[in-house]
Amino acid sequence: MNGLRPPRIELRSVVRTYAAGGADEVRALQGIDLTFAPGEFVSVEGPSGCGKTTLLNLLGLLDAPTSGELTWDGRPVGDRPERVRARLRLEGVGFIFQRFYLLPTLTAAENVELPMRARRLPRADRRARADALLAEVGLAGRARAYPHQLSGGEEQRVAVARALGNRPGLLLADEPTGELDTANSRAILDLLERVRAARDATLLVVTHNPEVAARAGRHLEMRDGRVVRDVAEA
Amino acid sequence: MRGPFRPRPLRHARLQAVLAIAAMAAAVSLPVVLVSVGGGVEDHELTAIENSGYQIVVSAGGEHGIEHSHALAATIDRVTGVAEASPVLSIAIDAFPSGGSASPVLAEGVIPDAFSATLGPTESDLFPNPLPLGDPSDTVHFANGSYAGPATDDVLVSSPYAASAHLTVGATLDLGPTASQSQASPYTITGIFGVPKTILGPVGAFALVLPLSDLQVMCGYASGNGTVVPDASDTIQVAVSGAISVDPAKLSAVESAIQSQVPYYQVTSLTQEAAQLEAADSVLTGFYLALSSVGLVVGLLFLALVLLRRIEADRRSIGIRRALGLSRGSIAMSVVVDGLVLAAAGAVAGLLGGYAVVAALAADATGTVQEAASLAVFDPRLLGGIVAAVLVLSIVASLVAARSALRIEVAEALR
Ligand SMILES: Nc1ncnc2c1ncn2[C@@H]1O[C@H](COP(=O)(O)OP(=O)(O)OP(=O)(O)O)[C@@H](O)[C@H]1O
Ligand SMILES: [Mg+2]
Question: By residue range, what is the domain housing residue B68?
Answer without folding.
Answer: 61-264
